[in-house]
Amino acid sequence: MRARIFSKHPDLFPEKIYNMETFMWSFGILFSRLVRLPSMDENVALVPWADMLNHSSEVETFLDYDKSSLGIVFTTDRSYQPGEQVFISYGKKSNGELLLSYGFVPKEGSNPNDSVELALSLNKSDKCYKEKLEALRRYNLSESERFPLQVKGWPVEMMAYAYLVVSPPSMSQYFGEMAAAASNKNSSKTRISYPEIEEETLQFILDSCEPSISKYTKFIEGQGDDLISVNAKQANRRLLLKQLARDLCTSERRILYRTQYILRRRLRDMRGGELRALTLFNGLRKLFK
Ligand SMILES: C[S@@+](CC[C@H](N)C(=O)[O-])C[C@H]1O[C@@H](n2cnc3c(N)ncnc32)[C@H](O)[C@@H]1O
Q1: For the residues of the chain, what is the DSSP string, one character each?
Q2: Is 0.90 surpassed by the pTM of this model?
Q3: Could you tell which of 100, 102, 111, 113 is best to mutate to test the pocket of ligand 1, judged by most ligand atoms within 8 Å of the CB?
Q4: Which InterPro entries does the record match to this protein (predicted)?
Q5: How many angstroms does the Cα of residue 270 sit away from the middle of ligand 1?
């Protein structure tokens, strides 16, 4: 654009105004302020008073053009007292998405839509590696996939993928069914379940959280003042960016910790159940000896 238009017409586009810095500023302003109006074919608009509203993940709000009053109407799910801050929802977005689009990270634990991706991979030394990979490829999946975790749980697709990773050769007849469920392309969309490998599957997901947790911890704890800043403005900006990165990592690690907590509890219940059944069985055996 600069070579094709701006530099050819310096009188219309003086470099002092049309430069990279001002472009980035305008881009940021536009994308952090524009709103989508459903009743105007989802067209986007700048709405001067509405762009003063900050985001909260706890409110459900609607902003739209109202044909009868020929104006923009803002509807909230609660009443407000004079002087109280009114919030809008920028959408059900994760903290990472909010940081990328709007430049902030919500307070820790305040965003129920926050999510983090967990990578699961086939084990290269698995006897059935080739068969499993073939099954995955049939559904456009590969030997390593990422799934979104939230504090409230994980997707059924991730459980299906994990079943496939841990399943023994004796379960090869189910590989296709597992891959289909992992890709969410199984027509019935039913939750698949294999009780015989449930425990191993949960343990596999639990172990897969570890490398991500250590990476986050290393990043959060290892952030010293290593960068030399040219001036105070630059130093402040770096500090702000570092703090945002730290906040994001802390919120994503929190979801991984929560996932591990749920998994550990389930495993403990399962193992406790198995132990009770074994004790009962041994007791009965002694009784009938
Ligand atoms: C549409 S504007 C909202 C009004 C803005 N606070 C202002 O004073 O002009 C969007 C920007 O507000 C800030 N913002 C909105 N919600 C926020 C929140 N919950 N926490 C921190 N900053 C927020 C972010 O900088 C975002 O890019």
Answers
A1: -IIIIITT-TTTS-TTTSSHHHHHHHHHHHHHHEEEEGGGTTEEEE-TTGGGPEE-TT---EEEEETTTTEEEEE-SS---TTPPPEE---S--HHHHHHHHS--PPTT--TT--EEEEEE--TT-TTHHHHHHHHHHTT--SEEEEEEBTTB--HHHHHHHHHHH--GGGGGGHHHHHHHHHT--TT-PPP--GGGHHHHHHHHHHHHHHHHHHHHHHHHT--S-SPPSSHHHHHHHHHHHHHHHHHHHHHHHHHHHHHHHHHHHHHHHHHHHHHHHHHHHHHHHHT-
A2: no
A3: 102
A4: Rubisco_LSMT_subst-bd, Rubisco_LSMT_subst-bd_sf, SET_dom, SET_dom_sf, SETD3_SETD6_MTase
A5: 46
Which of the listed CATH numbers 3.90.1420.10, 3.10.580.10, 3.30.360.10, 3.50.50.60 matches domain 116-277? 3.90.1420.10
Q: Please report, for the chain, the start and end positions of each structural domain, with discontinuous segments joined by +.
A: 2-91, 116-277
Centre of ligand 1 to C-alpha 235, Å, is 22
Q: What does the pLDDT profile of the chain (289 residues) look like in tens digits? A: 777 888 888 898 898 998 989 999 998 888 888 999 999 999 999 999 999 999 999 999 999 999 999 999 999 999 999 999 999 999 999 999 999 999 999 999 999 999 999 999 999 999 999 999 999 999 999 999 999 999 999 999 999 999 999 999 999 999 999 999 999 876 566 678 999 999 999 999 999 999 999 999 999 998 665 666 678 888 898 999 999 999 999 999 999 999 999 999 999 999 887 767 777 777 777 777 6
**Smallest CA separation from ligand 1 atom 8, residue:** 52
